[in-house]
């Protein structure tokens, strides 16, 4: 029996008193829950003993009661902390841009945020309809606002909500700013309705106007018109998220035909009733879109995640479909961006857990490439601070892509338009994306990637990582380990809870705990320097070996190191 399974009558140590929470919480259902559980120590400990912490992309948690869940009190406490942080830095007059997705209560959380910040003297622009995250981020940059907040849980399950926070440089907040804001989240003094301004004091912008301004700026006009071949029929799904209208408007401006809709997934619905899971990385999520494509005879499927900042692509391959991995799509987009730009100061970036293929391509083409920590807050840092360079591309393997410096975050809408452009250029050569990947493999070598992940107790994850630091594996897939990198020993800002192993046969393994849930993530890559013969057979063989290696690595976290 684990220690946390022992029955105890000890009174829990509470971060906030339930009576104080009930007095501040405007949600009557939460107040009723508190009244019912007032004498239940397990209930009190579960709901009032811990608080949310900033993860890889802000706050993210199920909606519910208490400071460890997303709710109106937690949102108000967080908004106040952000406002106080801006005031401490003398940035409050520059204001904040606020947006939200289509999940339940997201509009309420956004309005509470705007009203509380306004009361503190921070002017707010609230985009008053659900809209994609990149739209909000673009508006922050255009207004030179001190920050932006997007109420979204991105591709998390339907029961979750979240809070993405952007700093004065236009990127997602990084240490120490996130830690400083966290330290100001005071649950011993809870803001109430009296701490809110009136709605008349807030500047509102309609979602349609916000999207239109963003599209006019980030999407080139008529990019497809010069092609000699008509664009084929294609299918698109926003996965019940907020990207549909923006994507169709972007296609109109770029000159591409409107996609065939996946009707049951087109309108925003934060309950995601027609999806197994709202993450296009997960198996089966694109099945409905692929079925529509088969019925229509289409050869291309695109999808955004629910807040529109990620892009997934599937290509017709014979009688079936090939969904491009995040790394394959990243390589194709980078190749296109390099091919359609010029200059000696071009700059790209990718995360350490992404494929090294993009770095190899940039080295081959004479383009500077930076490897960064996980998360777009790090990927976009060079775009902001390398002022002498010209930013052309950044990506992470989790389907996040930056194709311009107008949005200082991943942007699934503008990335989709760039992909459609490269797809058309390849058609003009009578080749497709999969053939282009083969051509690139002949040029820079073959890079095959695969991932594995599993949920474990946080203590087990840390114990296993500590063991691996002290006693790393000797071999990977039968090949000697020739290099070990422990990123926890690197100086800030490059320090991270990440381990990396390399073998003599070209295998790379990176292991890190998730920043948002009790999960370990394992990133695997096989490099073949001079691939011969059938490349697809080589990919399939490497992928199966990496699958086995991933399963072996996960077993280490079950005590089988």
The average pLDDT value, as a whole number, equals 94
**Form type:** globular
CATH-derived topology of the largest domain: Alpha-D-Glucose-1,6-Bisphosphate, Chain A, domain 3
| Number of discrete helical segments | 18
Radius of gyration: 24 Å
Q: Provide the low-confidence segments as ranges.
A: 1-8
Query: What amount of the residues lies in strands?
Result: 15-25%
CATH superfamily of the largest domain: Alpha-D-Glucose-1,6-Bisphosphate, subunit A, domain 3
Physical arrangement of strands within the biggest beta sheet? 1-5-4-2-3-6
Instruction: Write down how many β-strands occur, each being a DSSP E stretch of 2 or more residues.
Output: 21
Helix content: 25-40%
What structural class should be given to the helix and strand makeup? alpha/beta
CATH class label of the largest domain? Alpha Beta
Largest sheet: 6 strands, mixed
C-alpha end-to-end distance: 22 Å
CATH architecture of the largest domain: 3-Layer(aba) Sandwich
For the record, the count of structural domains works out to 4
What do these coordinates show?
The protein has 561 residues and is of the alpha/beta class. The chain has four domains: 210 residues, 3-Layer(aba) Sandwich (Alpha-D-Glucose-1,6-Bisphosphate, Chain A, domain 3); 97 residues, Alpha-D-Glucose-1,6-Bisphosphate, Chain A, domain 3 (3-Layer(aba) Sandwich); 110 residues, 3-Layer(aba) Sandwich (Alpha-D-Glucose-1,6-Bisphosphate, Chain A, domain 3); 116 residues, Alpha-D-phosphohexomutase, C-terminal domain (TATA-Binding Protein, 2-Layer Sandwich), CATH 3.30.310. Helices cover 37% and strands 20% of the residues. It has a six-stranded mixed β-sheet, sandwiched between helices. A six-stranded antiparallel β-sheet has the order 16-21-20-19-18-17. A five-stranded mixed β-sheet has the order 8-7-9-10-11. α8 runs parallel beside α9. The N terminus is likely disordered.
């Amino acid at each position: 029996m684990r220690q946390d399974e022992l029955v105890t009558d000890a009174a829990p140590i509470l971060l906030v008193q339930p009576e104080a929470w009930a007095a501040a919480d405007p949600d009557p259902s939460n107040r009723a829950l508190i009244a019912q559980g007032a004498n239940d120590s397990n209930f009190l400990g579960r709901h009032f003993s811990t608080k949310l912490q900033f993860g890889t992309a802000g706050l993210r948690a199920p909606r519910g009661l208490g400071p460890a869940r997303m709710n109106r009190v937690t949102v108000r406490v967080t908004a106040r902390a952000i406002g106080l942080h801006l005031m401490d830095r003398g940035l409050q007059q520059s204001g904040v841009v606020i947006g939200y997705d289509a999940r339940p209560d997201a509009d309420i959380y956004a309005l509470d945020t705007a009203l509380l910040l306004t009361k503190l003297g921070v002017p707010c622009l609230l985009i008053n309809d659900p809209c994609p995250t990149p739209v909000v981020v673009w508006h922050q940059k255009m207004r030179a606002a001190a920050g932006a907040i997007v109420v979204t849980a991105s591709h998390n399950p339907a029961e979750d909500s979240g809070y993405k926070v952007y700093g004065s440089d236009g990127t997602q907040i990084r240490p120490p700013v996130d830690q400083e804001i966290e330290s100001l989240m005071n649950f011993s003094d809870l803001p109430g309705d009296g701490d809110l301004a009136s709605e008349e004091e807030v500047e509102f912008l309609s979602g349609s106007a916000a999207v239109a301004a963003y599209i006019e700026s980030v999407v080139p006009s008529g990019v497809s018109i010069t092609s000699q071949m008509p664009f084929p029929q294609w299918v698109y799904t926003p996965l019940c998220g907020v990207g549909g209208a923006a994507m169709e408007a972007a296609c109109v401006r770029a000159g591409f035909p409107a996609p065939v809709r996946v009707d049951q997934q087109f309108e925003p619905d934060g309950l995601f009733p027609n999806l197994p899971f709202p993450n296009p990385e997960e198996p089966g999520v694109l099945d409905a879109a692929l079925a529509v494509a088969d019925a229509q005879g289409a050869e291309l499927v695109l999808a955004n995640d629910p807040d529109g900042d990620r892009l997934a692509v599937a290509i017709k391959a014979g009688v079936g479909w090939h969904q491009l991995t995040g790394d394959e799509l990243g390589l194709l987009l980078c190749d296109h961006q390099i091919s359609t730009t010029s200059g000696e100061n071009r700059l790209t970036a990718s995360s350490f857990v992404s494929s090294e293929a993009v770095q190899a391509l940039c080295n081959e083409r004479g383009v500077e490439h930076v490897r960064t920590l996980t998360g777009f807050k790090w990927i976009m840092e060079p775009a902001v601070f390398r002022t002498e360079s010209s930013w052309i591309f950044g990506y992470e393997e989790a389907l996040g892509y930056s194709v311009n410096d107008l949005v200082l975050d991943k942007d699934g809408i503008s990335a989709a338009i760039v992909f459609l452009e490269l797809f058309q250029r390849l058609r003009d050569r009578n080749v497709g994306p999969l053939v282009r990947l083969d051509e690139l493999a002949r040029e820079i070598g073959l890079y095959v990637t695969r991932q594995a992940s599993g949920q474990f107790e946080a203590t087990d994850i840390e114990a296993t990582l500590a063991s691996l630091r002290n006693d790393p594996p000797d071999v990977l897939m039968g090949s000697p380990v020739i290099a070990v990198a422990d990123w926890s020993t690197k100086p800030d800002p490059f320090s991270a809870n990440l381990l990396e192993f390399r073998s003599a046969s070209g295998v790379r393994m990176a292991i890190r705990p998730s920043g948002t849930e009790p999960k370990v993530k394992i990133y695997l890559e096989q490099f073949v320097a001079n691939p011969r013969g059938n490349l697809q057979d080589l990919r399939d063989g490497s992928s199966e070996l990496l699958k086995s290696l991933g399963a072996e690595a996960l077993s280490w976290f079950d005590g089988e190191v």
